[in-house]
Design a protein that fits this description.
The structure is a single chain. Helices cover 68% and strands 0% of the residues. By secondary structure, the protein is an all-alpha fold. The protein folds into two domains: 1-27, no CATH class; 31-147, Ribonuclease III domain (Ribonuclease iii, N-terminal Endonuclease Domain, Chain A), CATH 1.10.1520.10. The radius of gyration is 16 Å and the shape is globular.
């Protein structure tokens, strides 16, 4: 079973996922910014949960509280403010599309401005993830977390 989780003959997980489920190549810049944000929200949450769990074995309620403090819109907005000057033109274009998207709802515990910044951040994270640019994605997350006061 371990062999199948790793992707059979040593394939990269993204390549194995695409092969196993017959996923076509896509131009992710053509996707809806809200679809990219949907993916980015899940990926960012998974990255934060992974960091927290691998750092400490604690009760799930404590893990959830810590994760919720980090993945909220206000923190993402702070991260994005620090990251914006470091983005490439292509990355900034993806961020702007996400920021300017018109979601059907906003977070109950965030200002509209923070929510829009967070949506742009999540669109960027989703786009980088789907492109397979995980190193750049994780570097931006690490830098953004540091700027928001979270040192890992």
């Amino acid at each position: 079973m371990e062999e199948s989780i790793r992707g059979g003959s040593g394939m990269q997980p993204d390549a194995y996922l695409a092969q196993a489920f017959h996923l076509p190549e896509r131009d992710w810049t053509q996707y809806s910014p809200l679809a990219l944000a949907y993916m980015g929200d899940a990926v960012f949450d998974l990255v934060i949960r992974t960091i927290l769990v691998k750092r400490a074995n604690m009760q799930s309620a404590k893990l959830h509280y810590k994760a919720a403090q980090i993945v909220r819109a206000g923190t993402q907005a702070k991260m994005m403010a620090a990251l914006l000057p470091q983005l490439t033109q292509e990355e900034e274009a993806v961020y702007r599309r996400g920021h300017n998207a018109n979601p059907s709802h906003t977070a109950k515990n965030a200002s509209r401005g923070d929510y829009m910044e967070a949506t742009g951040f999540e669109a960027l994270i989703g786009w980088l993830y789907l492109r397979g640019d995980h190193t750049r994605m994780l570097d931006l997350i690490r830098q953004g977390l540091g700027a928001a006061g979270y040192e890992f």
